[in-house]
Amino acid sequence: MTAEAPRAPLSPAALEAAADWIDRFDTLSPGELAALQAWLAESEQNRRAFAAMESALLEDALSEAVELVRAAPAPAPMPARLPSAVPSPGLTRHARPRPGPGRRALLQLGLPIAAAIAGIAVLWPVFSPIPPAPQPPRDTSVEYATPVGARADATLKDRSVVHLDAASAVRVSYTRRARDLRLERGEAMFEVAHDPARPFDVDAGGATVTAVGTIFDVELVDNAVDVRVFRGVVRVRSPGGNVSLLHAGERLTLDGAQPAVMRRFTPDLSQTWRSDWLQADNAPLRQVVARLNRYSPRPIILKSGGLSDTTLSGRFDLRRTDTTITMISVLLGLDVVRDPHGIYLARKTQLR
């Protein structure tokens, strides 16, 4: 077997140019992408520099693109206009940064970098180039969102599943060491794939819910964070730093400056929103209305300030919000006024 001749060290100029290309990659125009292709074709030095800097500045989205370059059977010409991704019905997927023309064009230009990238684990320690100036971290998170009245499920890349309630959104950011999610609005149930090396953290309203392999539900409603555990154990860190352990059948509510409330529930009977029902157990009317507004085509508005903390119990149909509002008005002795802009609830005579 013939020994492979040692490669010449990479020049600082080539590494600096490669770092500049990669740093601007998401915003390159078609003309600039063509210039990048020409630069890579100029020399093996340029291709090796690009591969080395790509490894140094590695991020999930670009590494996935590189894997597709490796696996592509043949290069394809770059289209004049790149198609947009089509979201699944009922679920909107927003990536930040969005997979714009830059990453997709790299896959389609057929750039000759796969071989250099494949050998990067050996090359990079040998080169030891001067590292580039630190760059601000890139946000590669992805948002999953549902509109009013529609629920949806999202399977994440570790096979965990997020069940989103209507008018809800969760932002997902995965790295090699962590699985970080943020519930931005509404409610979501999480079925967490077991991975003890990467905790699964959900941030909601300043509280952090941590699990390794379990099923739990997190809701943002009014100013409160509500956590329910259906299987396994989760750790909840409140905005004030207090830590609570929740086991299956336990529920924790954090409501602003109010003391945390821990109580038990029956898991088999409590996935009501996934079966079109809202279960209220002495719940403040403002929270019941907030949940109904995820399904109501017209906003439901409380016109009397004193109604917010009025408590309500019962089981209400989420898919028939108009009928549900009529039922609530009867139970609490309220007036209802409907117009094209909303549904208004108030004490008797206040809407007349």
Protein described:
The chain has nine helices and 20 strands. The chain is 26% helix and 31% strand. A hairpin with a 2-residue loop joins strand 19 (334-339) and strand 20. The strands form four sheets. It has an eight-stranded mixed β-sheet with strand order 1-2-5-6-8-9-12-13, with no helix packed on it. It has helices at 12-23, 30-42, 44-56, 60-71, 101-109, 114-118, 120-127, 285-292, 321-332; strands spanning 92-95, 142-145, 152-155, 161-164, 169-174, 179-185, 187-191, 200-204, 207-211, 215-221, 224-231, 233-237, 243-247, 250-255, 261-264, 277-284, 300-302, 311-317, 334-339, 342-347. It has three domains: 12-79 and 93-127, no CATH class; 144-269, Jelly Rolls, CATH 2.60.120; 276-347, Phage tail protein beta-alpha-beta fold. Mean pLDDT is 77; it is low at 58-72, 74-88 and 96-130.
CATH class annotation of the largest domain: Mainly Beta
Multimeric state of these chains? single chain
Please state the structural category. alpha+beta
CATH architecture of the largest domain: Sandwich
Number of helices: 9
What is the arithmetic mean of pLDDT?
77
**Coarse morphology:** elongated
The fold-level CATH name of the largest domain is: Jelly Rolls
Number of strands: 20
- Largest sheet strand order: 1-2-5-6-8-9-12-13
Task: Please give the domain count.
Answer: 3
User: Low-confidence segments, ≥5 residues, pLDDT <50?
Assistant: 58-72, 74-88, 96-130
